[in-house]
C-alpha cells in the first residue's frame, strides 16, 4: 500500500505544472491573435505601417494621454449646438423662478405704470428683435425674464455681464405680455439717454436736416407709426412735448418696431425748452389746416370733424395748452391777438431751404398756441396738405409721413440740382 501511495504521489506531482503552463501559453496565444501589428516587416526588408481602425487606439497611447487632453478631445467631439463652453466660460448664471415667485409681477407693475416708470427710470422691452436692437444701440439691461435658455444664448454674451437672468414659465410671461403671440423673453432696461446711445452707422450717414416735434400726441399707435416714419426718412431727432404719450410705453414700442433705437428721441420737453434742441437758423412749420379758416370764410361748408384728424382744425374750439379750461374758439382767439399770423403754404412748396422742424398736433386737441408762436418767431409757417372737400382729414401719423417724405424729396432734388445731375432724383 505504501508503494502504491508513493507511485500515486509521484504520478500526480508533475501533472499540475504542465496544466498551468498550457493554460498560460493558451492565453498568450489568444492575446497575440487579438493584437493588430503596428508594423509588418517582410523578408525582403519592406516595412509597412498599419493604422488602427476607427475608434481603436493603442493602449499605451491612451494611457500616456493626460486627463486634460482627453477632456479637450471629448469636448471637440460634441456638436457645437450642445457645447455650453461659451456660456460657462463667461461666468454667467441664471436663477430659476420657484412657485409663488413675485419678482416678475413686481417688476411688471412698475414698468407698466408711467409714473413708476419715470420714477424708477426703467422700461420694458419684449421680443428678441427689439431687445437685440436695444443692446446694439447701447441700452443698459438690468433684468431678463425668459422661458427658454436658448433665447438668452442668442444675445451677445458681453452685454449680459452683471444682468439678472431669471428663468420663468412661459405661462407667466404670457400673463404679462402685451403681444398676441409672446416670444418668451422680456427685458428690463434703464431708460435710454439719447446722448449716450449708439445709433446705426447707416442711419447716421443718411440723417437729414429735418426735425420732428410731436405736440400733444396721445395715441400710442400713432406715435409709434410716426417714429417709424421719422427713422425711415432720416430725421435728425424727434422731440416730444409735455402732454404726449410716453415714447417708452409698451404699445408705442411695439408700434415703433425698433425706431426708438434708430433716431434720437427727447421725451417730455417743456415748450420753453424746445428752442434749446433746435439747430441754429431752424424754421418751424406747423402741420394743420387752420389757415383754411381765414382763406375760405366764404365757403359754405367746412369739415365739422377735427377729432379724427387732430392736426386739422376748423371752426370748432382750438384747445391751447395754457387755455384749456377757457376753451376759447379760433375766432375769439384771433380777435384777442392770441393767434400769430402765419403764412399758409402748400406742403410741396420749397420749405427746406433752411433746417426745418415740423410740428404734428394731437388727434383730438390739435396744435398748441406755443407751437404757433414758435413758428412765427423762427420765420416758419403752416403747411397745408390739400384733401377732397368734405372728406375726413388725415391722421397725425399719415400727415407726418407725407410731410417728412416730401421734405426728403425736396432735399434730394436740391442736392441733384447743385451737383448738376438732377435727372436721377
TrEMBL record:
<comment type="similarity">
    <text>Belongs to the class IV-like SAM-binding methyltransferase superfamily. RNA methyltransferase TrmH family.</text>
</comment>
<dbReference type="InterPro" id="IPR051259">
    <property type="entry name" value="rRNA_Methyltransferase"/>
</dbReference>
<keyword id="KW-0808">Transferase</keyword>
<dbReference type="GO" id="GO:0003723">
    <property type="term" value="F:RNA binding"/>
</dbReference>
<dbReference type="InterPro" id="IPR013123">
    <property type="entry name" value="SpoU_subst-bd"/>
</dbReference>
<dbReference type="Pfam" id="PF00588">
    <property type="entry name" value="SpoU_methylase"/>
</dbReference>
<dbReference type="InterPro" id="IPR029028">
    <property type="entry name" value="Alpha/beta_knot_MTases"/>
</dbReference>
<dbReference type="GO" id="GO:0070039">
    <property type="term" value="F:rRNA (guanosine-2'-O-)-methyltransferase activity"/>
</dbReference>
<keyword id="KW-0698">rRNA processing</keyword>
<dbReference type="InterPro" id="IPR029026">
    <property type="entry name" value="tRNA_m1G_MTases_N"/>
</dbReference>
<dbReference type="InterPro" id="IPR001537">
    <property type="entry name" value="SpoU_MeTrfase"/>
</dbReference>
<feature type="region of interest" description="Disordered">
    <location>
        <begin position="45"/>
        <end position="90"/>
    </location>
</feature>
<feature type="compositionally biased region" description="Polar residues">
    <location>
        <begin position="75"/>
        <end position="88"/>
    </location>
</feature>
<protein>
    <submittedName>
        <fullName>Mitochondrial rRNA methyltransferase 3</fullName>
    </submittedName>
</protein>
<dbReference type="InterPro" id="IPR029064">
    <property type="entry name" value="Ribosomal_eL30-like_sf"/>
</dbReference>
<dbReference type="GO" id="GO:0042802">
    <property type="term" value="F:identical protein binding"/>
</dbReference>
<dbReference type="Pfam" id="PF22435">
    <property type="entry name" value="MRM3-like_sub_bind"/>
</dbReference>
<dbReference type="GO" id="GO:0005759">
    <property type="term" value="C:mitochondrial matrix"/>
</dbReference>
<feature type="domain" description="RNA 2-O ribose methyltransferase substrate binding">
    <location>
        <begin position="124"/>
        <end position="195"/>
    </location>
</feature>
<dbReference type="InterPro" id="IPR053888">
    <property type="entry name" value="MRM3-like_sub_bind"/>
</dbReference>
<keyword id="KW-0489">Methyltransferase</keyword>
